[in-house]
Amino acid sequence: MRRTLVRVKRQAVILVPIGLSGDNLNRIYPAHGKIYMAPLPDYRPKQLSLGPLETEILHIVWELGTVTVKDVHDRILADPDRELAYTSVTTVLRRLTEKGWLKCDKQERAFYWQPMVTKEQAQAIEAHEKLHRFLAVGNPDVVAAFADSLDYASCEQLEAIAQRIQAARRAREKQ
Predict the structure, then answer these.
(1) Does 99 or 158 have the greater pLDDT score?
(2) CA–CA gap between residue 69 and residue 113 (Å, rounded)
(3) 20-36 residue pLDDT tens
(4) Taking the model in full, what pTM does it have?
(5) For residue 14, what pLDDT band results from cuts at 50, 70 and 90?
(6) DSSP string across 45-63
(7) Which residues pair with 23 in a beta bridge?
(8) Domains of the chain: residue spans and CATH
(9) I want to staple 54 with a disulfide (CB 3.0 to 4.6 A). Which of 18, 28, 50, 131 is the partner?
């Protein structure tokens, strides 16, 4: 199936099979309405790269919501094969705050950390960054080769994304 690249707002690129839209799309890709994506947030962390321990702790914060150092330390030590100093958890939470992933609030004598972006927003940011790096190759033949190598399931997901973008555009136009 032949595809064309369509550039949309916020630098997203969607591969759309030529000639498919509306009812044709619903008939061929009926599952397209089941994919939900978080919008690209206006806020972005200052530094996107994270180490393995930073990533693990960020996932714990996302799971628990608001945390103290003790909450994170206890969660990590729940695994009997793990050892990690309390001060190491403090250092990582502080680094995640400096990188813009967390915010820290002091309430009385305790510090509480909260995520600045949701897990879904972080995934959208990561996908956006990966797409930018892919497109930075600048060679249309490489992008076309990628489009030709997509399997049917990938095409269904891309179609669903395209439909969501079109719906968002229509909603914005009505405002």
Answers:
(1) 99
(2) 8
(3) 344 443 333 344 444 44
(4) 0.65
(5) very low
(6) -S-----HHHHHHHHHHHH
(7) none
(8) 3-42+123-174 (no CATH), 52-116 (1.10.10.10)
(9) 50
